[in-house]
Design brief:
The protein has 93 residues and is mainly beta. Helices cover 0% and strands 54% of the residues. A hairpin with a 2-residue loop joins strand 6 and strand 7.
């Protein structure tokens, strides 16, 4: 699977984990040069506290368009630090 935004592949892996129709990419599969930490956090009742990244590609910013769970609850421990996307990021094979 590939995650694409602003015509760049920002993550690629054949080992994504699908949770609630979102592909979670292993941390080693993301191209960190396109990611900035965000101060945004949200809480999922069963996964726990999510942290966010802003994508920056060729000078364009996509705030809070990637998220991950650094310390997920027990039911979601399999996606610890895996990254999922939204806000215009395309996921393709």
């Amino acid at each position: 699977m590939k995650a694409i935004w602003n015509n760049k592949v920002i993550a690629e892996s054949d080992k994504t984990i699908v949770v609630e129709r979102n592909h979670y990419f292993p941390p080693e599969s993301v191209k960190k040069e396109f990611f900035e930490e965000s101060g945004t956090h949200t809480t999922c009742p069963w996964k726990g506290l999510a942290s966010y990244h802003t994508l920056v590609v060729d000078g364009k910013r996509n705030p809070d368009s990637a998220w991950y769970y650094p310390a997920p609850r027990e039911l979601a421990r399999g996606i610890k630090n895996y990254v999922a996307f939204w806000k215009g990021v395309t996921i393709t094979k």
